[in-house]
UniProtKB/TrEMBL annotation, chain A:
Cofactors: [2Fe-2S] cluster
Molecular functions (GO terms): 2 iron, 2 sulfur cluster binding; electron transfer activity; metal ion binding
Residue span, 2Fe-2S ferredoxin-type domain: 2-104
Keyword NADP recorded: no
PROSITE patterns documented for this protein: 2FE2S_FER_2
InterPro entries xrefs: 2Fe-2S_ferredoxin-like_sf, 2Fe-2S_ferredoxin-type, Adrenodoxin-like, Beta-grasp_dom_sf
Family statement: Belongs to the adrenodoxin/putidaredoxin family.
Record lineage: Bacteria, Pseudomonadati, Bacteroidota, Flavobacteriia, Flavobacteriales
UniProtKB keywords: 2Fe-2S, Iron, Iron-sulfur, Metal-binding
Protein name stated in the entry: 2Fe-2S ferredoxin
GO BP of this protein: P450-containing electron transport chain
TrEMBL record, chain B:
Annotated GO MF terms: heme binding; iron ion binding; monooxygenase activity; oxidoreductase activity, acting on paired donors, with incorporation or reduction of molecular oxygen
Stated family: Belongs to the cytochrome P450 family.
Protein name per its UniProtKB record: Cytochrome P450
InterPro entries in UniProt: Cyt_P450, Cyt_P450_B, Cyt_P450_sf
Highest taxon in the source lineage: Bacteria
């Protein structure tokens, strides 16, 4: 069981728990505002864009090349950006803090 | 497997040059073909403008058949963001349980009807009807209204030929004008009424702006949805094992939807007007000319997609741009995805196999390229489980 905290764009903390599947699906299932997951998690949209807390980057690892291609052209991305559809829930992610990214 | 295949006519040009060229009513288009280039151009809204003369970013150009600006499709940032924020919640309604349940009922009803017939012409007999009925949900208006739209046939802007037809387009424009007038007199819970009551940046929407959103809603989701449905029926006819797989592994349905939409790319391309002399793929492009973002080509880019010319039903990473990219991604994408998701589930559950009896392909002529985009007709028989 991994406990993951989302910080919404209006600075509310939402902590949810999951055991498997993607972090995006966990957020969608718990109605985390700003994470829409339009494409269902195949990396075709960027509606699951989050910023990983800097101290937690070793939990998540860095973005894949395909993810980076999406994020490069996103005006709100930075070096801590991930698409959370590409984050698989495991014990390793317990305590993870993710800031939901702004979007146009 | 030949009847359902949709070849990629852009491959050679994409690999060798990265762009293609076509004329369109004496307003030529440089077609951008590679996925990364398409994304970059889509993102660069200052150099590659959407908010040009109304109709000019559409290919074939609609400059000669309409003056109304489609909103938010033909609006650039920063205004685009405000209009988009207004309409986005409405266009996310397909995710709601009631909407989804009613859409499921509609799709079940029409599939059940197909199963009773010896043969059915899919384009008008299935896809157009499904698209039109589902649109009543998107607009939140009575189901019966769909009969009017079905009666228009598959072409809203064309007669049977390929040329755009102003008289034909006016049927839609006049219809929308009439509905706006009625909504002004008698506001309801429909999209017209929501728009008429809305403000953007403190200003009420004008009648013309309301009309612009409605034209986009009607026209943008018609051919595209019909093509996506029809092409997928043809695919499943030639791949009955996929029907079985979707039945036995329903968890891959979402990925199958994305993959079918990538492979068939119901909207081939969308134009932009160039605002300054520039270069793409080391090719000079002049101010006040047009480029196109060729979604269909980008979606077959072998630099990004393994086996791009195959339908891989469970493709896990699928960064396709069939719904566009960046600011102007497709407003109706949620609705389209819901239709496809429910359709695949329904067909998998009820249909054992589909036989293709006859077909006539619909080929777009795009300068140096000819692209199959779907079917003018597709006659099939649905065999029940």
């Amino acid at each position: 069981m991994a406990k993951i905290t989302f910080i919404t764009t209006d600075n509310k903390n939402i902590t949810v728990e999951g055991t498997s599947g993607s972090v995006m699906q966990l957020a969608v299932d718990n109605s985390v505002p700003g994470i829409d997951g339009d494409c269902g998690g195949v990396c075709s949209c960027a509606t699951c864009h989050v910023h990983v807390a800097p101290e937690h980057v070793e939990k998540t690892g860095t973005a894949s090349e395909i993810e980076e291609d999406m994020l490069d052209l996103n005006d709100y991305s930075n070096e801590y950006s991930r698409l959370c559809c590409q984050l698989e829930i495991s014990d390793k992610l317990d305590g993870l803090v993710l800031q939901v990214a702004e979007s146009d | 497997m030949k009847k359902s295949a949709l070849p990629d006519p852009f491959e050679e040009a994409r690999v060798n040059k990265g762009y293609g060229e076509m004329d369109d009513q004496n307003d030529p288009v440089t077609m951008i073909l590679g996925l990364k280039d398409v994304r970059k151009c889509a993102h660069n809204w200052k150099t590659f403008q959407s908010g040009a003369e109304p109709g000019r970013i559409v290919i074939p150009s609609e400059v000669n058949i309409r003056d109304t600006r489609q909103i938010p499709f033909e609006v650039d940032p920063p205004e685009h963001k405000d209009f988009r924020a207004l309409v986005d919640p409405w266009f996310k309604r397909p995710l709601e349980a009631d909407y989804s349940a009613t859409l499921t009922q509609q799709i079940n009803d029409i599939v059940d009807e197909m199963l009773t017939k010896d043969s059915i012409e899919v384009v008008e007999g299935f896809s157009l009807r499904l698209q039109s009925r589902a649109l009543t949900l998107l607009l939140n208006i009575p189901y019966e209204e769909s009969e009017t739209w079905i009666s228009w046939g598959t072409h809203v802007f064309r007669s049977e030929g390929e040329a755009l037809d102003g008289d034909k387009a006016n049927i839609l424009y006049d219809y929308i004008d009439e509905k706006i007038t009625k909504a002004i007199e008698n506001p309801g819970d429909d999209l017209y009424s929501m728009l008429l009551a809305a403000t953007v940046n403190g200003k009420k929407l004008t009648r013309e702006e309301v009309k612009g959103v409605m034209i986009l809603t009607f026209a943008g989701g018609r051919d595209t949805v019909i093509n996506a449905i029809t092409n997928s029926i043809a695919y499943l006819a030639e791949h009955p094992e996929s029907l079985n797989r979707l039945l036995n592994e329903p968890e891959i349905t979402g990925r199958a939807v994305e993959e079918l939409i990538r492979y068939f790319s119901p909207l081939t391309q969308m134009g932009r007007v160039v605002t300054e002399d520039t270069q793409v793929c080391e090719h000079a492009i002049k101010e006040d000319s047009r480029i196109s973002l060729c979604w269909a080509s980008a979606n077959r880019d072998a630099k990004v997609f393994e086996n791009p010319n195959d339908v891989v039903l469970d493709r896990k990473i699928n960064p396709h741009v069939a719904f566009g990219f960046s600011h102007h991604n497709c407003l109706g994408a949620t609705h389209a995805r819901q239709i496809m998701n429910i359709l695949l589930k329904t067909l998998a559950k009820k249909v054992k196999s589909i036989d293709i009896i006859d077909y006539k392909e619909n080929i777009e002529e795009l300068g140096e390229f000819n692209r199959k985009v779907g079917y003018n007709s597709l006659t099939v028989k649905f065999n029940g489980r």
